[in-house]
Hints:
Layout: E1 12-16, E2 20-24, E3 29-34, E4 39-40, E5 43-44, H1 52-66, E6 75-77, H2 80-86, H3 94-97, E7 101-105, E8 108-109, E9 112-119, H4 122-131, E10 133-134, E11 137-138, E12 148-154, E13 157-158, E14 166-167, H5 170-177, H6 179-202, E15 205-216, E16 222-225, E17 234-238, H7 254-265, H8 280-298
Antiparallel strand pairs: 1-2, 2-3, 3-7, 4-5, 6-7, 8-15, 9-12, 9-13, 9-15, 10-11, 13-14, 15-16, 15-17
Helix pairs in contact: 1-8, 5-6, 7-8
Amino acid sequence: MMLMTTSDLPLKRIARGKVRDVYEVDGDRLLLVATDRVSAFDVVMAEPIPMKGAVLTQTSAWWFRQLEGVVRHHMLAADADAIVAAVPALKPHRAEIAGRAMLCKRGTVFPIECVVRGYLSGSAWREYAKQGTLAGETLPAGLKESGRLDPPIFSPAIKAESGHDENITVSQMAKVLGKDVTAELERLTRVVYTKGRDVALKQGIIIADTKFEFGQTKSGEILLIDEVMTPDSSRFWPLDGYAPGKPQPSFDKQPLRDWLDVERRAGRWNGDAPPPKLPPEVVEATRKRYLEAHRRLTGAELSL
């Protein structure tokens, strides 16, 4: 499979995110192309991770199929032949989009990331350990690092076009979207996470936390969009060996995060762009984690 850091297709590109390029097909459809770009701590690395785009797209497609009847979503097709049949202009570019492109319903994206935390880890744990809070809201005393949160905590964030996303409270989210939409997005977030958590546990994976995005069609229908419970948007832990009270090994981009943490503590990186150059061994370790996450979760090797 070819390595892709940027795409160039015969469609109008309307957005370029940290990882995905978004193209307009027509008034009702979009094409999302997941490149092999990788970000960590909201900074895009210069070096790509081979096959990462395919892992993200095909893992999301697998989840959308699991979520049929649970939530409305934007996926129309993630198979290259089906996409080419629907958008003939892409026929000469089949090899480029194979595995990494998704044809989707079009909608307006809500400017809030719907983060849900089933376990206390990462930045949430660091804030709690220091202040006893999450996004400034007080949590119960005595919680452990990597401990299960029951019920899970809904922790929205304002999306940043560049730089770091900002955690906000639910009341702040309601000021942006209104109380009714906020309540519905929180409800959908909890429903989808609960389904995903239960499915993943059967596969031996704990989804410690994840983030969802939602959009709204012209008719007012709210859809689950973008990527769903992938190694990019989630923290995956192996169920066997799980022990609260300490950090857990992860089936995601943890090798990348760990290396960047070392660079930051050593004063070689300040946490902002541009990031340091990734060593080949970090790229390879991250690639293997992405492929392993897909295999464990879906029960199958990635095939395009």
